[in-house]
Specification:
With 231 residues, the protein is α/β, with parallel strands linked by helices. The protein has one domain (2-149, 188-206, 223-230): Rossmann fold, CATH 3.40.50.880. The chain contains seven helices and eleven strands. A seven-stranded mixed sheet has the order 3-2-4-5-1-8-9, sandwiched between helices. A hairpin with a 2-residue loop joins β8 and β9 (200-205). α3 packs parallel to α5 (100-109). The chain is globular and about 50 Å long. The termini are close together.
Length: 231
């Protein structure tokens, strides 16, 4: 199984997917048939147009996965899939309702290359319980694709120095998750991603990741670090 789990689709001051496109292009290799899953945003048409144009600059042919029987056909046609960011609950509910979750999981287990940003990275995990999003809709369950055995928290934020905010930090929320769930969580700061090739995983991008485990002190992993121990 091959997957590229990206924290964010747009870096501050840069264009859509510009910061991670070199890694995406290298990851897909010679593959030119890409299925795009737009369900995390309400404006699927606008999302599709933006994504089609961006991958078109890389000479990659994009077809959109629609919420009907044709969506399954698109996943069969594709050599790679990109699941875009937005609201994770909306994304998962649509995948569940259209039975696309099962189709996508099986295709990825049989050679389809998976790429997901933000919400798209969340649904590659066993569940979406470590998303930052508000549950604007209710999926059947929180169970997701389970392509990797660990959880991801995209857009991971460190607490600002000197802040007087009294709410929970991101790390505190993830620690609460670990109190109830033994699954490792990788806090992916913006501008970073995880590349999985079979039993090998590597941290890409320019920022370190925060690895959190139950009853263990959080650990920083530097860019380029081997994350294979999490698989």
């Amino acid at each position: 199984m091959q997957a590229l789990l990206i924290s964010n689709s747009t870096n501050h001051g840069e264009g859509y997917l510009d910061h991670c496109m070199p890694a995406m292009r290298e990851f897909v290799g010679v593959r030119r048939r890409l299925a795009f899953v737009p369900f995390a945003l309400f404006d699927r048409q606008g999302y599709t147009e933006r994504t089609t144009a961006r991958f078109g600059r890389e000479e990659i042919d994009v077809r959109t996965v629609t919420a009907d029987s044709a969506g399954h056909e698109t996943l069969t046609w594709a050599e790679a899939v990109f699941v875009g960011g937005g609201n994770t609950f909306r994304l998962l509910r649509t995948l569940q309702e259209q039975k696309l979750l099962t189709t996508l999981r099986e295709r990825c287990r049989h050679g389809l290359v998976y790429m997901g940003a933000s919400a798209g990275a969340n649904v590659a995990c066993p569940t979406i319980r470590t998303t930052n999003d508000m549950p604007i809709v209710q999926p059947t369950s929180f169970d997701a694709l389970g392509l990797v055995p660990f959880q991801v928290n995209p857009h991971y934020l460190d607490p600002p120095t000197g802040s007087t905010h009294m709410g929970e930090t991101r790390e505190e929320r993830l620690t609460e998750f670990l109190e109830e769930n033994p699954t490792t969580v990788v806090g992916l700061r913006e501008g970073s991603w995880i590349r999985i090739d079979g039993r090998s995983a590597t941290l890409g991008g320019l920022r370190a990741a925060r690895v959190l485990k139950r009853e263990t002190a959080p650990e920083e992993r530097s860019p380029g670090a081997d994350l294979s121990d999490l698989l």
